[in-house]
Amino acid sequence: MKLKWDFPTHNIYKREDTKGANATIATKIEAALPEQEAYFTIAGDDRRPLLVLRECLICNGTDDALLSSYENNEAVLIVTRWFHCVKLPTDILSDEHSFHTLFEGDHPPHLFVSRWDGSNPIELRGDLSRSELLGNMYATLKAEYKKDAKKAAKEITKLMYVYDMLDEKIQRLEITIDDELERRGPKSKKLKKYRKQLEAAQKEMAAAKEKEAVLSNLQLKNPDEAPNALAELLESRKNGLPAGQ
Prior knowledge:
Strand order of the largest sheet: 4-3-5-6
Largest sheet: 4 strands, mixed
CATH topology of the largest domain: Glutaredoxin
Distance between the termini: 43 Å
Number of domains: 2
Strand content: 5-15%
Number of helices: 6
Helix content: 40-55%
Radius of gyration: 25 Å
Oligomer: single chain
Shape: elongated
CATH architecture of the largest domain: 3-Layer(aba) Sandwich
């Protein structure tokens, strides 16, 4: 399992008239977006709750701010699938960075979760234990999804062991079939049995993945939530221009 990060980028442009009929140019400017606009922009069309990481010079290029180097991260990795995971660069603290308003203050958080629009934020400090970290993440998921994320995560954890067992079984049977073909050729009487066992193991794997897909669908409470102001903003951003221009 790997964390799937989104790396949002954003440029602000303004229109300027130039000589000639109906002629304009778009000029890039550097400025921080208002806080609400910054959240709308990084969320885009994704209504999952946000998990936002601000990289620093120490953790740059890693997931160390979230994952532990000495504790099992499997549970955390499973839970992150229900978040829109956003990673922002080290220069986010610059006043001119588009998303600077997400990390203002004397002690800006390194990592936090919130609703897609930035409301109900919970800071996830690096000194939290795995149980505290997961507790905060589950609190956000409980508010945003119809189904129980904790229960689903426990069942998915069990499936991880099933995957390991089936992977090993499938690899072993594939090797056995290759060895049998090399020793006795395609007419070997044992091949049919081995291939039947391999087919059964592959079907078990497919069934386990289907079960995981069902468990992963927690169903957002507000999947289509998008105020008119947000819709206008997103449309304007597609054109690279400020809303209302």
